[in-house]
Amino acid sequence: MSDGHIHVALRVRPLLEREEESGEHAAVEVVPAGAARQEPFVRVLRPVEGHGVGAAARPRGATLRGAQVQVQEFEFDCCLGPAVPQEALFDRLDIGAYCDDALVEGKAATVMCFGQTGSGKTFTMSGRTLGEAEVLAQQQEGDGAADVRLVSEDGLQYRAVRYMARRLREAQGVDGATVQLRASYMELYNETINDLLQGSSGLKCRWAAVSKQFFVEGLMLVECECEEDLLLVLREGQANRQRSCHMLNADSSRSHVLFTMYAETHRADGPTRYGKITFVDLAGSECLKDTGSDVRETRSINQSLFALGNVLERLSELQRLRLRGGADADMKDSTKKKKNAHVDYRSSVLTQLLMDSLDGNCRTLMVACATPSSRFVDESLRTIHYAQRTRSITAAPAQ
């Protein structure tokens, strides 16, 4: 998985009981590998316009098979159906290799989740959020904040924390090395950066001319010496995360959230290595009419995702030009070359924060999450097409 591609996995959650009760059915499914294909793939069943089957006419649990539908099939680097449990996800996606890039190799790695609200993004990234009563019961029984869990069925970042803590113990002292691990947790809400660890808001994303990267000025970095320290950072950040309850998902997170672990390795026989791994839970992409959300909030989310999509499209275009023999093969003017290769990362704060995840110096995985529900088949297709566009990119190092 180090061939320069942005790798993309697609996860389809189970159809919920309330969806079945309302007459919805599975229109997006993961088809297992077989004689025709060596790897699982995604199949979407979309009613042909004018031939849809009304929800009221379908019995509970009915599908579209036999109706007039348009069948579309898609391939990804990894396709995960409802039967894949949380405990298998970490290994199936090889997240340990991304952690090793940061801690052992001194490189950057990014894992991001994308999809419609209610598609399972936050469940995939963090786990099932516990209710207030469950958390309160733990507080009454436990000995301290470190014992209080905010989620069950741990997601990718909780499992990554445990993996990183174990690898940190193994790396300390090897060949005289000392390893320092720090963590940050921030959200981007309505184009405003909030530090989820110190409660500060309105932080600015600045450009560092020397390193040619964006950074968040004033962001709190917490030194972590063990698994408990990292878990406290996660729990503190999640407790402070901006949420608003709306129609699609009572636990919907309405902001882009970035949890980052930074590794600094000092060796007696070589230069200091700096690595990091960032977990990005992107806010849900949806239509205003479906959510009932605040207009400004939803527009801000969709505009930032649109800007990210434009960056992905531009990177994909540059990749196609490179494959044809070079975009600037006939151009001698260096100014024109730079202009032709320009990618507008400054178009939104989100694209600024994700620049080093896309510029070719970082191992990047996108986990696209889709709902199987026939009600949202168009939204699921938009997610799938977005993910396909991302998968087409072979990132090249920034010049």
TrEMBL record:
<dbReference type="GO" id="GO:0005874">
    <property type="term" value="C:microtubule"/>
</dbReference>
<keyword id="KW-0067">ATP-binding</keyword>
<keyword id="KW-0547">Nucleotide-binding</keyword>
<dbReference type="GO" id="GO:0005524">
    <property type="term" value="F:ATP binding"/>
</dbReference>
<dbReference type="GO" id="GO:0008017">
    <property type="term" value="F:microtubule binding"/>
</dbReference>
<keyword id="KW-0505">Motor protein</keyword>
<dbReference type="GO" id="GO:0007052">
    <property type="term" value="P:mitotic spindle organization"/>
</dbReference>
<keyword id="KW-0493">Microtubule</keyword>
<dbReference type="InterPro" id="IPR019821">
    <property type="entry name" value="Kinesin_motor_CS"/>
</dbReference>
<dbReference type="GO" id="GO:0051231">
    <property type="term" value="P:spindle elongation"/>
</dbReference>
<dbReference type="GO" id="GO:0007018">
    <property type="term" value="P:microtubule-based movement"/>
</dbReference>
<protein>
    <recommendedName>
        <fullName>Kinesin-like protein</fullName>
    </recommendedName>
</protein>
<dbReference type="InterPro" id="IPR036961">
    <property type="entry name" value="Kinesin_motor_dom_sf"/>
</dbReference>
<dbReference type="GO" id="GO:0005875">
    <property type="term" value="C:microtubule associated complex"/>
</dbReference>
<dbReference type="InterPro" id="IPR027417">
    <property type="entry name" value="P-loop_NTPase"/>
</dbReference>
<dbReference type="InterPro" id="IPR001752">
    <property type="entry name" value="Kinesin_motor_dom"/>
</dbReference>
<comment type="similarity">
    <text>Belongs to the TRAFAC class myosin-kinesin ATPase superfamily. Kinesin family.</text>
</comment>
<dbReference type="InterPro" id="IPR027640">
    <property type="entry name" value="Kinesin-like_fam"/>
</dbReference>
<dbReference type="GO" id="GO:0003777">
    <property type="term" value="F:microtubule motor activity"/>
</dbReference>
<feature type="binding site">
    <location>
        <begin position="115"/>
        <end position="122"/>
    </location>
    <ligand>
        <name>ATP</name>
    </ligand>
</feature>
<dbReference type="Pfam" id="PF00225">
    <property type="entry name" value="Kinesin"/>
</dbReference>
<feature type="domain" description="Kinesin motor">
    <location>
        <begin position="5"/>
        <end position="393"/>
    </location>
</feature>
